[in-house]
Amino acid sequence: MLPFEEVPVMDRNSEYRGKPPKELMENAGRGLAEEIMERYDERPILFICGTGNNGGDAYVAARYVSEKWDTKNVKVYLIKGLENVRSEIARENLEKLNCEIVEEIDRSSIEEGTILVDALLGTGIKGEIREPYRGVMEKINGSSNPVVSVDVPSGLGADYSVKPDVTVTFQDIKEGMSEENSGDIAIKDIGVPQKALDHTGPGEMFLYPRPDSESHKGENGELLIVGGGPYTGAPVLAAKAAYRTGADLVHLAVPESVFDVVAGFSPNFIVHPLKGDRLSEKHVDEIIELSRRCDTIIIGPGLGSEDRTMNAVKEIIKRSDTPLLIDADGLKACKKEDIEFNTDALLTPHRGEFEMLSDPKENERYHKRADRYAEDHQVTLLVKGKKDYITDGDNYKWNDFGNEAMTVGGTGDTLAGVVGALMSKGLGSYKAARLGAYMTCEAGDKAFKDYRWGLMPEDIIEKLVTLYQD
Asked: How many independent structural domains does the chain possess?
């Protein structure tokens, strides 16, 4: 089942992987026409179209039906007129039609027995259905004619929807569809490349949680990074990346021995000193209290692996009800131990670190082990490598962006900051990991064009802002 928000992701990634929207629309329209002509004998048919690509699928179908049935039987209604068709490829397909375009839906356009094809609204519609859509949808539901919806019944997920006899959906059943609200469901393969479904791509940017224009400070992500001690650069890189990803506030909890160094990197950081030179058990209460004002915790960058530090990490994981991202040294506290995660948690090991987390079964490939670990522990894993693997046990994606210069130290800390910021902005760990992996590696690929093998993590961070322009 495909969630509504995944539809534009799939479409954009299909284009990136070599299947342009124009071709997908052609395949969808042809599949729709074939399904209609298989189910019904020739009769009048009225395609009731909205202004977007859902209408475009119907224009293609109308063209195919016109080639097999008497053109006089095929009519198209545009709910807001020709001038308001907003999709360029839909407009191109509309211009190819040689059937009648009607201006109103009335008895002259809906004869008894006419097939009504509902192509008004696509996926992701919420809230109240307004005019002129509601009135047209009421006419469709009020008729005794057979009704076929395109991809999803118009209004599904909103306060009012079309009740079709048949829904011809594309690639997969969409979230919320059932026989009760969608009638008989026919699934049509429209040629979406497999890599558009199981690999990240520029479509992941549709998942980015854009700020509301009325929002205030702290409402778009407040992040806590627990790190530092033997190393100071790691938590700083994570914090910088988090800000460039759009977090409103970034807190760093670091040992007081490195407080001045970390605070001195940027006036944007909110730095909290922890007494001593390492994170230890005595700081757990303080960390838990501080985390309650934040949306996500990143724990691990630059911590070191002393026993007292590992004990503190284990206790924070056990007690935290704030979403967690565990990275770098923090992962050592999780090695082959039955740790219970009580909140949405993401672990970001590289391949070597993942080996210490799980016990392989004979001939079991690492990504299958990752699926099993994620399912058993109810967490998300982002296993870093030449090709990253993201899984929550039920869903998975590969990320094949990035380049050989990204082996430079600090890239993992940058990734943690990006993903942690996305989690703090309200994305669940699986979506944040997918989007964060793509963003970090795409920014890295852009930086590589400028710096080649001299690339540094801060170069990646500065390229993050270019992704929002697409």
From this structure: 2
